[in-house]
Amino acid sequence: MKRREFNRLCTAMLAGASSHSLMANEQTLYPRTQLMYENDSPVTVASMQAGSSCIFSYPYVTTPCFLVRLKKIAEPTTQWQGGVGADSSVVAFSAICSHKMSHPAKPISHINFRQEPISFYSKDGKATERDQLISCCSERSVYDPAKGGEVLSGPAPAPLAAIVLEEAENGELFAIGSAGTNVFDQFLDKFGFRLALEYGVSDVRAPVGSLSIATPAESFSAQQIRC
Fold first, then answer.
1. CA 20 to 30 Å from 67, out of 113, 124, 173, 180?
2. Element (H, E) at 199
């Protein structure tokens, strides 16, 4: 998505979105950041296998995000750009749960993208089994990355904030902003001391800069809790 298109989308959403929609509260542009692998090669749609996920930092060095290539199309809505790539399958979301801000930490993660089927109770109380979802095992909130990070189950009060992606003509991926209700400030206020130690930084609000490393999710945390 081009920056001018993102601005136009944000303006339209501000004018017409309801207070309960995905993008009702915040549409924020941040500096353009290229996503790179640890071997210094650029992240592209073609480089990601369907069903794979990575963790990268954006817009701050200490705020983790999911980058996912789904096995399905992530259709755009009036509030969300949808997936990028020729098959509209690559999406990104803040990896901070909107309930109690559980997130992938380097020692352990209770929130993960699950390409395999998981079981949960839907909002109307029906037993459900689905794959390709983001599951937070702290309080059993479940999100759908193919539907703008909407909440399918659990106590989460809002969808995951979307990270707006831009695909360059050569296929390289960039993060350019966030859309939706982000909890960055609350997250950094609550976990700032630990994040400073974990990431080895003095300023937890330091912008991530022009590059952000995308680490395979299975390698980012030493232990992953799955439920």
1. 124
2. helix 184-199
